[in-house]
Amino acid sequence: MTEATIDGHGAAQATQAAVQSDDHQQHPLKVYLVVWAWLFVLSACSYLVDYAGLQGYLRWTLILIFMMLKAGLIVAVFMHMAWERLALTYAIILPPVAVLVFTLIMAIEADHTLLTRLTFFGAGP
Amino acid sequence: MAETTIPHTALRPPGLRGVAADWSSDQRAFKNVSWGKAMMWIFLLSDTFIFGCFLLSYMTARMSTRVAWPNTSEVFSLHVGGVSVPLLLIAIMTFVLISSSGTMVLAVNYGYRRERLKAVGFLLLTALLGATFVSMQAFEWSKLIAEGVRPWGNPFGADQFGASFFLITGFHGTHVSIGVLFLLIVARKVWRGDYDVGRRGFFTSRKGNYDSVEVMGLYWHFVDLVWVFIFAFFYLW
């Protein structure tokens, strides 16, 4: 189905779409298809991390890298954030930083909870 | 929605100066996006906070328990021909959802090109893939419930596993289900040519145009985006 779309319309439509209107997001199909392919590759990679049974910091680093690449591609290209005016981009991308700060606070809190549990109840069953 | 869109002129400065100019200007900060699109982005931002809080409460539960967390690689494995393949169903679900994101982006593109039938086709394909995802999730839930996983306990390890699993995947599945419903509504509107003639919507009474397909796309890609994080943090970590 994807192949049919490329073969059937190809260059003519790509150039037509390249004439970008200011009011809506229209881009060459090729950009989407390339990103789509990359999303499949990156998903396969993150699955392989588990399949290969990697553990520890290597596992966590790879999971985070593949996750951020996938999320970035989806937001930037599929959701058109790369082409929006910065007034919108910053309004949407910056607030989630608060979630990261919250995560840090809760990580410290969870560490403390575990410490008190180990101190008063001993190691887990 | 078109009537609220101000054309993006060359007078508008780019970069950080543009951010300051847009935000300090009269009436509206988002100059060249439609009202519907700006509101969808703000809704998605609020949804980001909801899913963010779900994931970080899962992190808190997992980090603070003394009991070992269940090995998701084993819990979510499927037996195919006598061999246990780790996370097989989840991997297939991931690929189904990414496929649906791709078909959605094509639907938006063909909508803007006024190729109605192709847009409808891809919207329906997206809805079908979304429905497939939800059915697979229903299968996964049934399997886990049959194995004794409950919100208050499970046979594999820490009790909080069930509560985190049902809350996070349940909330995500609800988003997918609602998305499928709206995909069908948008597909019907494209099919009827509502966005070509500017027919007014039943709910907002605003004139419809192909922007609505893009706004629908934003929601759908967000659902895929959330799954990327759930897949990484809940299933793979």
What does this structure look like?
The complex is a heterodimer of chains A (125) and B (237). Chain A has helices at 2-18, 29-51, 56-78, 86-93, 97-121. By secondary structure, chain A is mainly α. Chain A has two domains: 2-84, no CATH class; 95-125. In chain A, helix 2 packs antiparallel against helix 3 (56-78). Chain A is flat, with a radius of gyration of 22 Å. Chain B is mostly helical. Chain B folds into two domains: 1-32, no CATH class; 35-236, Cytochrome c oxidase, subunit III, four-helix bundle (Four Helix Bundle (Hemerythrin (Met), subunit A)). Chain B has helices spanning 15-24, 35-64, 72-75, 88-112, 116-146, 160-192, 194-197, 211-236, and strands at residues 78-80, 83-85. In chain B, strand 1 and strand 2 (83-85) form a beta hairpin. In chain B, helix 2 packs antiparallel against helix 6, helix 2 (35-64) runs parallel beside helix 8 and helix 4 (88-112) packs antiparallel against helix 5. At the A-B interface, helix 1, helix 2, helix 3, helix 4 and helix 5 of A face helix 1, helix 2, helix 4 and helix 8 of B.
